[in-house]
């Protein structure tokens, strides 16, 4: 499985939900409430929910992200949220940050 999208009815994704899913490269969380994405996944692209206001500590630890789509509502990114993410070429933030 290389990609996955979740329905609007999903309100939370628990810790380590994608741990060791190295073939998973794309996750669409645009209609969910993000809690955490575990480290050591093959994730390259993540679309975050429009309502997301905060990204927690180590949310994307050690992932292979190349693209993240941030919402205009995002206000806070905790320390080490992208620790070990070395392939992300650039980040564009909204004026709310």
Protein described:
The chain starts with a strand and ends in a 20-residue tail after the last strand. The model has no long low-confidence stretch (mean pLDDT 79). The radius of gyration is 12 Å and the shape is globular. It has one domain (1-88). The strands form two sheets. A four-stranded parallel sheet has the order 1-2-3-5, with no helix packed on it. The chain is built from no helices and six strands. The chain is mainly β and 97 residues long. InterPro entries: LRR_5, LRR_dom_sf. This is Leucine-rich repeat domain-containing protein.
Strand order of the largest sheet: 1-2-3-5
Average pLDDT level? 79
Radius of gyration: 12 Å
CA-based shape? globular
Helix content: under 10%
Strand elements, count: 6
Structural class: mainly beta
Question: What is the terminal-to-terminal distance?
Answer: 34 Å
Order of helices and strands: EEEEEE
Largest sheet: 4 strands, parallel
Count the domains: 1
Note the beta-strand portion: 15-25%
Layout of secondary structure:
Layout: E1 3-5, E2 26-28, E3 45-47, E4 54-55, E5 67-69, E6 76-77
Parallel strand pairs: 1-2, 2-3, 3-5, 4-6
Question: What keyword list fits this structure?
Answer:
single chain, 97 residues, mainly beta, 4-stranded parallel beta sheet, two-stranded parallel sheet, 6 strands, 0% helix, LRR_dom_sf, LRR_5, Leucine-rich repeat domain-containing protein
Describe this structure in a few short sentences.
The protein has 97 residues and is mainly β.
